[in-house]
Automatic annotation (TrEMBL):
Pfam families: Cytidylate_kin. One of its GO terms (cellular component) is cytosol. One of its GO terms (biological process) is pyrimidine nucleotide metabolic process. It comes from Macrococcus hajekii. Signal peptide: none annotated. The keyword Transmembrane does not apply. This is Cytidylate kinase. It catalyses: dCMP + ATP = dCDP + ADP; CMP + ATP = CDP + ADP. The gene is cmk. One of its GO terms (molecular function) is ATP binding.
Length: 217
């Protein structure tokens, strides 16, 4: 098989985007971070002072650029860095639980995967967006390690946080994502679970590249 799709799902800060980006680059595939798309709609929602989500969607145009991983263009403005700030993170699970928002983005995401050659990460990629993906990974890590990693991310980005607060926020967001009505975060039956706790980025990347090589053979 010369072209495959790879779906990577899992809870917050498990390492999905970091690994997906590296795998895509090593295999010359397209990397798509779907969390950033839900964050973009959340930013538009906050900037418009929490309007009706259905109405908001009719005025939203999202474009992804494959530059430095992925840049997100929301209505012709590059909002990539803004999407990681606390107000967006605090509201994204609410916005992502809305049926119209999910329909809108799943449709966009499925268009991106039609020609294969995509590494896509999120919460419902293996279960809903690409149920026929050739390789599905469900990535996890302990909540302590995830909070510590996110704290380092935030420090590098100049975003204020504390490890204790992050631990509580991450656990709360996971709970919302796992218990929502429409395509909740769950491991697809045919997904391979990888626990990245205590592993290096290189080790996890290698493991997935090996699994991909088997599918590409
Ligand atoms: N083994 C590992 N796998 C993936 N990421 C790791 C690993 N060890 C440390 N990290 C760090 O953890 C963070 C994971 O964040 P990210 O990739 O955004 O996760 P997610 O996309 O699951 O929210 C990054 O800062 C990354 O450098
Ligand atoms: N496929 C996806 C991706 C993200 N999301 C939502 O978007 C939020 C942000 O995703 P993200 O991947 O950017 O989050 P982090 O793990 O990077 O903090 C998640 O907490 C989910 O609520 C989703 O519902 N479905």
């Amino acid at each position: 098989m010369n072209k495959i799709n790879i779906a990577i799902d899992g809870p917050a800060a498990a390492g999905k985007s970091t690994i997906a980006k590296r795998v895509a680059s090593a295999l010359d595939m397209v990397y798509v971070d779907t969390g950033a798309m839900y964050r973009a709609i959340t930013l538009a929602y906050l900037e418009a002072d929490r309007p009706d989500l259905n109405e908001l969607l009719s005025g939203i145009h999202i474009r992804l650029l494959a530059e430095n991983g992925q840049r997100v263009i929301l209505n012709e403005k590059d909002v990539t860095d803004r999407l990681r700030e606390n107000d967006v993170t605090e509201n994204v699970s609410f916005v992502a639980s809305d049926p119209a928002v999910r329909r809108f983005l799943v449709n966009l995401q499925q268009q991106l995967t039609e020609d294969k050659g995509v590494v896509m990460d999120g919460r419902d990629i293996g279960t809903t967006v690409i149920p026929d993906a050739e390789l599905k990974v469900y990535m996890i890590a302990s909540v302590d390690e995830r909070a510590m990693r996110r704290q380092l991310d935030n420090e590098a980005r100049g975003i204020e946080s504390s490890v204790e607060q992050l631990k509580a926020d991450i656990a709360h967001r996971d709970h919302l994502d796992m218990t929502r009505d429409i395509s909740p975060l769950t491991k697809a039956e045919d997904a391979i679970e990888i626990d990245t706790t205590g592993q290096t980025i290189e080790e996890v990347t290698e493991e997935i590249l090996k699994l991909a090589a088997e599918k590409l053979a």
